[in-house]
């Protein structure tokens, strides 16, 4: 089974088709919560919720060839919900003995570097943001999987990534 339509029809018909669907898109779905830097437990929750949403909407998918994009968007929404919920909580894991904490200047430098990187990244267009986040957090994904998730041609993934990285470098240099 090559096309998403065939795989989707098989998934609607039974467990073997569902397993093929999960096998095809598992790494892509995992890449999304990883790009949000969620804990393993939270990423697993997002992963399962994404598949549950697909199971609930399996008969309503109208564009099987855009299934990768649908899964990425669903996982993104789930990840954002987790980030928002976790932002309201105070984790006890953050309280560490003073001897294991980095020096204040190390924290300041690292924080500044991260802030500048995220600021520069957020000024890029959405396509570049998504492409670079997927590339950074899931380098094992093939160009075909990345292309499907972003709705672009496989042949343009490398060139687009190169242009996006160059734009990010320029933005970072402009901040100095």
UniProtKB/TrEMBL annotation:
<dbReference type="InterPro" id="IPR036388">
    <property type="entry name" value="WH-like_DNA-bd_sf"/>
</dbReference>
<protein>
    <recommendedName>
        <fullName>RNA polymerase sigma-70 region 2 domain-containing protein</fullName>
    </recommendedName>
</protein>
<dbReference type="GO" id="GO:0003677">
    <property type="term" value="F:DNA binding"/>
</dbReference>
<comment type="similarity">
    <text>Belongs to the sigma-70 factor family. ECF subfamily.</text>
</comment>
<dbReference type="Pfam" id="PF04542">
    <property type="entry name" value="Sigma70_r2"/>
</dbReference>
<dbReference type="InterPro" id="IPR014284">
    <property type="entry name" value="RNA_pol_sigma-70_dom"/>
</dbReference>
<keyword id="KW-0804">Transcription</keyword>
<feature type="domain" description="RNA polymerase sigma-70 region 2">
    <location>
        <begin position="21"/>
        <end position="88"/>
    </location>
</feature>
<keyword id="KW-0238">DNA-binding</keyword>
<dbReference type="GO" id="GO:0006352">
    <property type="term" value="P:DNA-templated transcription initiation"/>
</dbReference>
<dbReference type="InterPro" id="IPR013324">
    <property type="entry name" value="RNA_pol_sigma_r3/r4-like"/>
</dbReference>
<keyword id="KW-0805">Transcription regulation</keyword>
<dbReference type="GO" id="GO:0016987">
    <property type="term" value="F:sigma factor activity"/>
</dbReference>
<keyword id="KW-0731">Sigma factor</keyword>
<dbReference type="InterPro" id="IPR039425">
    <property type="entry name" value="RNA_pol_sigma-70-like"/>
</dbReference>
<dbReference type="InterPro" id="IPR013325">
    <property type="entry name" value="RNA_pol_sigma_r2"/>
</dbReference>
<dbReference type="InterPro" id="IPR007627">
    <property type="entry name" value="RNA_pol_sigma70_r2"/>
</dbReference>
């Amino acid at each position: 089974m090559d096309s998403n339509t065939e795989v989707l029809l098989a998934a609607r018909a039974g467990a073997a088709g569902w397993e093929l669907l999960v096998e095809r898109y598992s790494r892509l779905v995992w890449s999304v919560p990883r790009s949000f830097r969620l804990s393993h437990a939270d990423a697993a929750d997002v992963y399962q919720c994404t598949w549950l949403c697909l199971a609930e909407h399996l008969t309503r998918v109208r564009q099987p060839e855009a299934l990768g994009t649908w899964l990425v968007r669903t996982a993104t929404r789930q990840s954002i919900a987790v980030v928002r919920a976790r932002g309201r909580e105070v984790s006890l894991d953050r309280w560490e003995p003073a001897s294991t904490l980095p020096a204040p200047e190390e924290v300041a430098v690292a924080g500044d570097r991260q802030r500048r990187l995220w600021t520069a990244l957020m000024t890029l267009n959405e396509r570049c943001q998504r492409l670079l986040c997927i590339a950074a957090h899931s380098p094992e994904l093939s160009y075909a999987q990345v292309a499907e998730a972003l709705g672009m041609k496989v042949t343009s993934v490398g060139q687009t990534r190169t242009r996006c990285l160059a734009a990010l470098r320029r933005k970072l240099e402009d901040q100095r």
